[in-house]
Amino acid sequence: MDFVSTTKALLQTLRDAGFDLLLANVQFVFTKYKIDIPHMNALYKKATSHSCQQQGSVIVYQHYHYDIFNSTIDFQLEELNSRFSDGTVELLVLSSALEPKDNFKSFKVDVIYKLAEKFYPDDFNEQEMNYLRSQLEHYQIDVIHHESFQNMSTISELCRGLAEKNKSQHNHLIDRLIHLVLTLLVFTAITEQTFSAMKHVKVVLRNKIEEEFLADSMMIYIEQEIVEDIDSNSIIDEFYSTKHRRIQL
Predict the structure, then answer these.
(1) Torsion of CA 148, 150, 155, 161, to 10 degrees
(2) With a threshold of 0.70, does the pTM exceed it?
(3) Is 249:236 a contact under the CB 8 Å cutoff?
(4) Do 123 and 180 touch, CB atoms closer than 8 A?
(5) Rounded distance, CA 93 to CA 111, Å?
(6) d(Cα 248, Cα 237) in Å, to the nearest integer?
(7) Distance between terminal CA atoms of the chain?
(8) What is the pLDDT of residue 126?
(9) Tens digits of residue pLDDT in 182-195
(10) pLDDT reported for residue 54
(11) DSSP code, position 205
């Protein structure tokens, strides 16, 4: 997550102040190998199959700077922001405090408490939130220094270890939080699967499909295993019984 954050920052810096340096390097190479260089202050003309059309008052420098360079970086930033928004990055960083690797090096009571308070408010009531901090302090002494948990490296191993050593009952709130964190991968996979399904359902011929019908169609496409057990005739009979119809379906 630190690498993602620094990548986004470096891309933004490149967008703000990197074009002139890139242009200088390109001009150096062009001059070295005697390649013709476009006049950056000349009016930009867009070539078509039959002629060149002047694009208003846009000069060549502006075209390469804003229409190509900035647009390319904006696309990369948009892709990173859509997959790793500030909220998602913070969630994953806070979740890493639960990892048992390196003898629970990342464990911090305040960080884990903030994780539950900010991202899972519906899963812990006010009384449980007050008790969570106390439970984390007991957990810090009991579990972290327990010899059975010293060689673990993943949260899933920690979850199994708490159950096997009967520690999950005494640390039920922490165990609940660990289970919630483990579902992050499932939610991510479902989101990716949904976007993939949309490409198959909303094709060109269905471009004007309504949102409700699109959602229903995608649900059927995604949950194909469940749909296989549904009898089409029973659906037709139920649809027919909701309203008197002139003909039998």
Answers:
(1) 0
(2) no
(3) yes
(4) yes
(5) 9
(6) 10
(7) 56
(8) 93
(9) 887 655 555 566 66
(10) 58
(11) G
